[in-house]
Amino acid sequence: MSGKVSVEDFGKTPEGRAVQRFVLRNNNNVCLKLISYGATIQAIEVPDKDGKAADVTLGFDTSDGYLGKHPYMGVMAGRVANRIAKGTFSLDGQEYKLACNNGPNHLHGGLKGFSHYVWDSSVEGDSVKFTYVSADGEEGYPGEVTAQVTYKLTNDNEVDIQYQATTTKATPINLTNHAYFNLAGNREPTIHDHVITIMADKYTPTDDDGLTTGEICPVDGTLWDLREGVRMGDRVNSVPGKAPGYDQNFCITQPGDNQLCARAHHPGSGRTMEVRTNQPGVQFYTANYLDGTLAGKGGAKYNQHSGFCLETQVYPDAINKVSTVFFVQL
Fold it and tell me: Are 210 and 82 in contact (CB under 8 A)?
């Protein structure tokens, strides 16, 4: 059995709704902290090879940081994570128009998405369940959706995340967690000394706005071949884009239940993180647009490439790309 869950106050929204923080600990001095605003991972504290614990996620010390504008630090992204082209899609013969909140495209559910609301919460044994009901028409999407995410910290040092959603109408669903990691500790300036491995033999190329083109291309001989493990400092600045670095969906070579899809290793601390999923893709993002203006935990300044995300998902803009994998909840 993993440890007990404690609950504490973590501020209030401008509307006066209380935000709670849930603290989960296991027998190995690992601590997971969650907040009800955005069903967010606020901290993961993990010992290094010498037994010294550090917080390996980027974020904020107080609720004010999460209530303000920020790049989805640790939140639940939805109703549809990632981008939808031009904020439009058609389903069952009807066209739907969404907010374009990322240049010409729709990103992570829109202006507020699922990440800027207080979720209902409950402690269920050694797990925490968050629930959010998204109204029919919210952000332009059809159907009332009841979304749930359950977090559990095990004594195998696993953070287990289970997603579930039901809806009253056909609607696209793509849920993921948007935690930023730095295995050296969240106050370290870069991830250049991290070795990243992604078990994907294909990826979905993007245009200059980060939108998938509809192609599925092999990684062989490209900067996107991370199958053998690559030190980020040797490659991340060579990846082209408006800001250098990775921000691509990788097509997991052998998708399946609880399939290993990615590994991150920090040699200095000895920390290693593995990602397993039942989803067909994983978005690898190297915090290309962080610029040092955010005041993070412990006064940290989060600069470009100071963290990375591994967001398991269905393929981006799949609702508009007939050649890719998408999921419509009925």
Answer: no
